[in-house]
Design brief:
The protein is mainly α. It is built from 14 helices and 2 strands. Strands 1-2 form a two-stranded antiparallel sheet. β1 (156-158) and β2 form a beta hairpin. The longest helix has 27 residues, at 213-239. The two termini are 23 Å apart.
Length: 344
């Protein structure tokens, strides 16, 4: 393969990012009202999948409880809107972000800052248990609606404008997804992100260099929880109600599958994974209403078995997917000697 061909192959992810964001920006022009609402939900779930990917793909924390932070923020802003009659976008979205950050910091401190480094299984079971307990608590708490949740939440406002589902909410969710995506891109490529990825690969070696790896992981986990909380706030005002299922293990597991299907460890992978599952589920449920769950499960199984790196692994090389930090440079050919390759 020529050098230019290799460079093009290593640039698949930026091309995918640009194509997807251009398509998303123009989609409402051709989509009907129903599909506009459907894609808005996909954006919100993609935010939640990004939060899982930041925890697992970049921090090495196997979280089966991302729905806990999603649902906690959803219930929190729903109560603010219902009881305090505050639905301003400048209050409720920062509040959702803060609830996600604080709740994930609390659970993360409990699981990650122990005397001994926790195992992945311990953290996975701890987050799974937290999600399950929160769901059961919500089902039995009359003040937050019990089994029925909180209905008829007033719409989010910007001055005198009310955001209801449709084209404007679509662009609101898309804008939040784009901002969060770019922020995550900056974080994972920063010195902090590289140290976090190093701790994921070899925690003992990174600790030897002087990094406090439990605190690094706690910060990464808290950032992921904040993104999940932001997604929960958007979901609450888009749907107009919250219910216990948005806290529970079913949604947590669905997001794990979406991120793994798309390809954990890349930011675009979870977005593609959520799109693939939601679109496939939408089409299969319409075409095969009685067996669509089985067909979708078999498709997921095939992808996981034959492409462990997810859908993104089918079109992106390992070098681009994992990154080339620390990889030795290939030996220079004799004919290259004396040729300025632009790296000096």
């Amino acid at each position: 393969m020529t050098a230019s061909g290799g460079n093009l192959r290593r640039q698949v992810i930026p091309v995918l990012e640009i194509v997807l964001f251009v398509v998303f920006a123009a989609a409402p022009i051709v989509l009907g009202d129903y599909l506009t609402v459907f894609v808005t939900r996909v954006f919100i779930l993609a935010l939640l999948a990004l939060s899982f990917d930041l925890a697992w793909g970049y921090s090495g924390i196997l979280s089966f409880g991302q729905a806990l932070f999603f649902g906690a923020a959803g219930y929190g802003v729903a109560l603010v809107a219902r009881d305090l009659e505050i639905a301003s976008i400048f209050i409720v979205l920062p509040a959702a972000l803060a609830i996600g950050l604080i709740s994930s910091f609390g659970l993360g401190a409990l699981l990650l800052l122990g005397r001994n480094p926790p195992t992945k299984i311990f953290v996975a079971l701890g987050t799974l248990s937290g999600s399950y307990v929160a769901e059961r608590l919500a089902r039995g708490w009359y003040y937050i609606g019990g089994q029925n949740g909180i209905p008829s939440i007033p719409p989010m406002t910007l001055g005198g404008y009310e955001f209801v589902e449709g084209r404007y909410y679509y662009y609101l969710a898309f804008s939040v997804l784009a901002i969060v995506y770019l922020a995550c891109r900056f974080v994972v490529r920063s010195q902090f992100g590289l140290a976090l990825a190093g701790a994921r690969e070899h925690e003992t070696r990174i600790a030897f260099f002087g990094y406090n790896t439990p605190e690094l992981k706690l910060i990464g986990f808290s950032l992921a929880g904040g993104i999940a909380g932001l997604a929960g706030g958007l979901y609450t005002f888009h749907e107009g109600f919250v219910w216990p299922n948005i806290l529970g293990v079913v949604l947590s597991t669905q997001i794990v599958l979406s991120a793994l299907l798309g390809g954990a460890g890349t930011l675009i992978g979870p977005v593609i994974g959520v799109m693939a599952i939601e679109i496939a589920g939408f089409w299969l449920a319409d075409s095969f209403p009685k067996i669509w769950h089985i067909i979708l499960g078999l498709l997921l199984l095939l992808v996981v078995v034959f492409s462990p790196t997810g859908l993104i692994g089918l079109v992106v090389s390992d070098r681009e997917r994992v990154g080339s930090f620390g990889c030795p440079l290939p030996p220079r050919r004799h004919s290259d000697v004396g040729v300025d390759d632009g790296t000096t």
